[in-house]
């Protein structure tokens, strides 16, 4: 695989993910549950993990989160979600590596949603020094199944479109 | 969807259901309730949710912003705040022991506790 093409596509994925993440932060939260969001920017992490492997996926997740933090300027809010995003992308990479044959991007996305919620609730409970907010976790996890399936489907379509239009992606993997 | 995806959905469902079961064990109503207000993990105020305090509003300001609480009949809510997401305001009233209103951007937390310890105080007096 041509290294320059690879770098360009990864950069585009980071940029795209940052824009999606920023736009999502502008949307009003549909449900009054702390920490709930669609997580559509996770699409670029899923695509990177599948096309370019573990390290690239983690890199895209980290860069995307940091850029969104600078765009929104809300450091406190990002404190919760960066931990969730890192934990989620690491676990998604592990799951994809271990069960590649038996799992689709939907399952990987669901794993990501699960660990994102777990991570951010854990960090939030440490920051506000109260375990009572773990009461929100079951609801977050249940909603995460729905958003996770949706995000996984989006990632699946994105990979199909990318492979259909970029020949070098098909040769590479 | 592959078989592995369904197994993951089932696993998450089991974990969420059991967590829901355990967290709901701690929730319930009590005769005497008090709301504990915490900012940044520190208790800044305690309000007994009795008839005397119905209609009471109070403003809490910290380096992160402000939250105004309002006490109702055995319930409490965050009435107004200058946080960007307004999640704490949208949550509305809470009334059960163990329920919380959280404003993560302000590290602000309202938690309802049952007032067991104060009853002991009354007996001691």
Please provide a brief summary of the model.
The complex is a heterodimer of chains A (173) and B (125). Chain A has 173 residues and is mainly alpha-helical. Helices cover 79% and strands 0% of the residues of chain A.
Write the layout of secondary structure elements.
The complex is a heterodimer of chains A (173) and B (125).
Chain A: H1 3-26, H2 42-52, H3 54-72, H4 75-98, H5 105-127, H6 137-165, H7 167-172
Helix pairs in contact in A: 1-2, 1-3, 2-3, 2-4, 2-5, 2-6, 3-4, 4-5, 5-6
Chain B: H1 3-25, E1 33-39, E2 42-48, E3 57-62, E4 65-71, E5 76-81, H2 87-91, E6 100-103, E7 108-114, H3 116-124
Antiparallel strand pairs in B: 1-2, 1-7, 3-4, 4-5, 6-7
Task: Describe the fold and architecture.
The complex is a heterodimer of chains A (173) and B (125). Chain A is 79% helix and 0% strand. Chain A is an all-alpha fold. In chain A, helix 1 packs antiparallel against helix 2 and helix 2 (42-52) packs parallel to helix 4. The N and C termini of chain A lie close together (9 Å). Chain B starts with a helix and ends with a helix. Chain B has a four-stranded antiparallel β-sheet with strand order 2-1-7-6. A three-stranded antiparallel β-sheet of chain B has the order 3-4-5. Chain B is of the alpha+beta class and 125 residues long. In chain B, a hairpin with a 4-residue loop joins strand 6 (100-103) and strand 7 (108-114).
